[in-house]
């Protein structure tokens, strides 16, 4: 049950060469500012607060610099080498203090003489582990930050990029990635999107009741509704779970599934730099069949599994550099080449779901510039991912009791959308919307 509700309705104004206008995430600052954001909120506190506060006089949050070790930092606070080793040992069940990432935040508490009495570190969303030094021994306690469920309804104009515009109006990166992954079954993000197109999402997040430097702000984003207008054509999608066993999917209002078998574009924010077909090879010099698509993007851009399947190769593949090969149903395979690195856990035999991150874009092997080389094979023959007739793989539309239950979900979501009145959109935004329709 949803006990809490914060409704955010935001209008984003972006057009042509204009840059995105930022709508602050700091909701309280925006209350009463009718030009930008309308906020209605009801707070209750469903989660118990567990806080273990050591006796303390001063507290500071430090971030690990590149190449800096936690024990090195602690030495500055008078922690001996032996105490450091004991700390690493005691913290092992939660995290390896010797493998903390650069930028990891650590809260240090000192007594009046400046000696360290406790340190706190986030281990996952809303969970903090505190090591307190008591008579020379470490005492470890785990605490949970207070969280609340927050409903968010956000609408904006695509602008220069759907991704950056959505971030600008406060949509979490995970939500945008989800929406783009779902929509990429139907929308060609390389070409179809225009800066006047409109997006809208309704979702529920678990958020910290109060910001804390040791934890990210929110997690567990459940997207209920996605709408994207592409060159005047609306894609309106509702999330529905057939039963507790099966994974939910997004459907059009009439019960047709939007999820297709294989993605045409297995990454976000990329530029299609070379198509399928005969071309002169930039390094080898002679004309040959380019058996896939090349996508130019920044090194490190996450690459997604195009569909559900099993990893058969995740290793060095000569001219392909670091490559991943995935086997899908119906005789299909997908190949991802020139990767900078593989995602955690991606190895031969690993099962993956559509949209899982399998690696990161790079320029390894026979490659001139950072790009993803993406191939699809059907029964051993390379095929063009862009012309793959994905409609053959649509799952059956919902019917019977499932359709009835789904339509109830649709009605509930529609009521939720209507109750969040969009009280203001700038003239520029409205003009864009009117022009499109
Ligand atoms: Zn290529």
UniProtKB/TrEMBL annotation:
Keyword Hydrolase appears in the UniProt entry: yes
Pfam families in the record: Csd3_N2, Peptidase_M23
Keyword annotations from UniProtKB, A to Z: Hydrolase, Metal-binding, Metalloprotease, Protease, Zinc
One of the record's GO cellular component terms: cell envelope
Annotated PROSITE patterns: PROKAR_LIPOPROTEIN
SUPFAM superfamilies attached to this UniProt entry: Duplicated hybrid motif (SSF51261)
Compartment(s) where it occurs, according to its Swiss-Prot or TrEMBL record: Cell envelope
Location of the M23ase beta-sheet core domain: 289-385
GO biological processes: proteolysis
Cofactor needs: Zn(2+)
GO function term, MF aspect, one: metal ion binding
Csd3-like second N-terminal domain boundaries: 148-276
Name the UniProt record assigns to this protein: Uncharacterized protein
Native species: Pseudoalteromonas luteoviolacea S4054
């Amino acid at each position: 049950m949803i006990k809490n509700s914060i409704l955010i309705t935001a209008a984003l104004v972006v057009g042509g060469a204009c840059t995105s206008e930022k709508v602050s995430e700091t909701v309280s600052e925006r209350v009463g500012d009718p030009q930008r954001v309308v906020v209605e909120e009801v707070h209750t506190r469903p989660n118990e607060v567990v806080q273990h506060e050591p006796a303390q006089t001063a507290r500071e949050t430090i971030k690990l610099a590149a190449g800096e070790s936690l024990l090195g930092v602690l030495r500055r606070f008078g922690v001996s080498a032996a105490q450091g080793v004991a700390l690493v040992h005691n913290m092992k069940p939660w995290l390896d203090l010797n493998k903390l990432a650069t930028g990891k935040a650590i809260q240090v508490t000192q007594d009046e003489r400046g000696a360290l009495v406790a340190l706190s570190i986030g281990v996952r969303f809303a969970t903090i582990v505190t090591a307190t030094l008591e008579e020379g021994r470490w005492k470890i306690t785990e605490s949970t930050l207070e969280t609340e469920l927050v409903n968010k309804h956000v609408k904006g104009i695509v602008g220069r990029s759907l991704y950056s515009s959505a971030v600008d109006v406060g949509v979490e990166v995970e939500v945008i990635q989800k929406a783009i992954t779902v929509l990429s079954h139907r929308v060609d993000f390389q070409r179809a999107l225009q800066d006047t197109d409109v997006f809208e999402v309704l979702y529920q997040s678990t958020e910290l009741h109060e910001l804390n430097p040791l934890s990210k702000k929110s997690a567990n984003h459940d997207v209920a509704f996605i709408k994207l207008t592409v060159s005047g054509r609306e894609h309106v999608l509702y999330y529905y779970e057939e039963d507790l066993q099966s994974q939910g999917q997004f459907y059009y209002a009439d019960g047709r599934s939007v999820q297709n078998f294989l993605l045409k574009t297995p990454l976000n924010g990329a530029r299609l730099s070379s198509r399928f077909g005969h071309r002169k090879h930039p390094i080898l010099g002679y004309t040959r069949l380019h058996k896939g698509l090349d996508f130019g993007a920044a090194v490190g851009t996450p690459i997604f599994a195009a569909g559900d399947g099993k990893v058969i190769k995740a290793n060095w593949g000569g001219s392909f550099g670091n490559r991943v090969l995935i086997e899908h149903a119906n005789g299909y395979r997908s190949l991802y080449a020139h990767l900078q690195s593989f995602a955690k856990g991606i190895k031969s035999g690993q099962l993956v779901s559509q949209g899982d991150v399998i690696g990161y874009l790079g320029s390894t092997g026979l490659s001139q510039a950072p790009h993803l080389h993406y191939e699809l094979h059907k029964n051993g023959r390379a095929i063009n991912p862009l012309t793959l007739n994905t409609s053959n793989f649509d799952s059956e539309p919902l019917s019977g009791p499932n359709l009835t239950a789904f339509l109830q979900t649709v009605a509930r979501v529609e009521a939720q959308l209507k109750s969040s009145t969009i009280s203001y959109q700038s003239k520029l935004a409205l003009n864009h919307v009117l022009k499109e329709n």
